[in-house]
Amino acid sequence: MELSSRQEQILTIVKENAPITGEHIAEKLSLTRATLRPDLAILTMSGYLDARPRVGYFYTGKSNTQILSDKVKTITVDHYKSRPVVVNESSSVYEAITTMFLEDVGTLFVVDKLATLSGVVSRKDLLRASLGQQSLETIPVGVIMTRMPNITVCHGDDFIIDIAKKLITKQIDGLPIVKKVTHGSGYEVTGRITKTNITSLLVDLANNESI
Ligand code: ADP
């Protein structure tokens, strides 16, 4: 995060005088407390300063990298998800390929008759099936998919950094975001998180967007 020159001045004052109240920082800069309030809020929210009620401001001593890394660790899947693209187990491989093109995704989630997650079909699964002798219109995706319980899933409140690690260790492109079904067992698919979502997060961090 780029700090303004006033914010840099505040940091210097706090480093030298901590703990120091907002009032005293304002005095040193010949400004009013009200004028400083937004800067102090930004410095506190972004992790440079610590504010203790009735004591004053402290310098946290965190580097920019530490502040960024603390920030990244708080971001959940719900902030960066996409909508899921789902096909039925009984859909043919041909239909799955068409859906993948029309919906412009690389992974399809497969559901059973009760709309609970039963598997995942990726580009390579479909390519592999296309190499076989059978007609693509007659093979159901249920036959070629990776199936439950071997599906790696995640929840909306999971931290995105943990999902990024899973994508790397499992060598997959995406995960279904799921919720337990209220009646019976299994998962309902509520979203999708992929390497593309994680790339968007990286771009937002670099552009210093508020996340
Ligand atoms: P691609 O096939 O395009 O390389 P992936 O790397 O995502 O795409 O998929 C590799 C294999 O892992 C495929 O067989 C796919 O069915 C399976 N797979 C994909 N996502 C998951 C997941 N979330 N859980 C378990 N297996 C998955």
Automatic annotation (TrEMBL):
Name-wise, this protein is: Helix-turn-helix transcriptional regulator
Q: Where is the CBS domain?
A: 80-138, 145-210
Query: What CDD domains does this protein map onto?
Result: CBS_pair_CcpN
Which Gene3D superfamilies does this chain map to?
Answer: CBS-domain, Winged helix-like DNA-binding domain superfamily/Winged helix DNA-binding domain
PANTHER family in UniProt: CBS DOMAIN-CONTAINING PROTEIN CBSX2, CHLOROPLASTIC (PTHR48108), TRANSCRIPTIONAL REPRESSOR CCPN (PTHR48108:SF32)
> Any idea which UniProt keywords this protein has?
CBS domain, Repeat
